[in-house]
Amino acid sequence: MGCGSVQQGPEVDKKCITMDDILSDSKSRVWVDKLPDCFREATQLPYTEEEIAESAAKCNVTAEPAQGREPKLVFQLGAAGTGKSTRMEDCYETMELSKEGLVVADGDLVRESHTGLKTAFGLTKATLLAGMAEAKSPELEEYTKLLAEFNDDHPVGFKDSETWSYNDSGKYKDQFASEALAARKDVVMGVTNLTHFTKKYKSVIDDAIKSGSTIAAMATFVEPEELVNRQVGRGKRKGRLVQSHKEWKDGNLITNAELKQKLSIEALPYLSELVKEHSGTLMLFDNTPNYFKDPSSKQGPFWVQKGASIEITYDGPATVEGMMEHISKTIQKC
């Protein structure tokens, strides 16, 4: 899928990065159209008791209940690849949280415990073909020819991964969150858009508030071109392709990143009001700089809200409107 005519602003051409830039680069991973049925069936198996227990441990469900204060329901808002989990560590002190005391209701952690999914995302040429041979797959000859030029240990990715990579992970993520909140534990959940607050997790929020939990949140944003670079890199490393926005039409992954991140940005006025109403904390980060490469480039939050009190580091008014304008001009840039 190539790029159509795309512009950033009225006159400036936008760089074009396409899905083919991922799929055509076979140095780190060779991509084939679909996961063979013999492996796909295993990705759809129900979670076993052992896998559920493993995912519960990864999500830290045995964390102790909050002591000396009300528990906190914390949301991590941002598009995939913006660094929510990494920057959460910069929120612990301000939010009066600890990593050890936090139940992390994360679908990625749940999926890491599913044997079929782990196997599918870890396939190499050798393990793929061996599994197909053992299953007497009718596709074996086709895949053998497709992969003939690659070494046995070369990783294999599948273009249809978005259709089989989730299974029931959301079910257990929500279960862990609900059980932890009922036990008055601090919980963190990842979200990407406004409907997660107003629909998908509305009952979770309502129940948490009724039981006395405080609502807190953090959000990360990245300039779209840099976000795509990170998503492309992650796709090559882990074998998961970039999720596409339903309105993405021009083939440019930067446009897709803009659309996906826009969904998170649109949730900010609601989230700010929610935090204000329930005396919580909201921290917003520009996570564009690669501070792993250059530690001096790391930026603190540009917005810290505690209840109705707001502190900012950008030039502009300390209002939701001012914050939205800042993000639009300096990060989203479209």
What do you see in this structure?
The chain contains 16 helices and 11 strands. The chain is an alpha/beta fold and 334 residues long. The strands form 3 sheets. The protein has a 7-stranded mixed sheet. A two-stranded antiparallel sheet has the order 1-2. A two-stranded parallel ribbon has the order 3-6. The longest helix has 15 residues, at 224-238. The chain is globular.
List keywords for this structure.
alpha/beta, two-stranded antiparallel sheet, 14% strand
Tell me the total number of β-strands. 11
Average of the residue pLDDT scores: 93
Low-confidence spans: pLDDT under 50, at least 5 residues? 5-11
Order of helices and strands: EEHEHHEHHEHHHHEHEHHEHHHEEEH
What is the percentage of strand-forming residues?
5-15%
Helix/strand/pairing class, anyone? Answer: alpha/beta
Largest sheet: 7 strands, mixed
Global outline = globular
Helix segment tally? 16
Question: Strands of the largest sheet, in order across it?
Answer: 5-7-4-8-9-10-11
Fraction of residues in helix: 40-55%
Nutshell version of this structure?
The chain has 334 residues and is α/β, with parallel strands linked by helices. It is built from 16 helices and eleven strands.
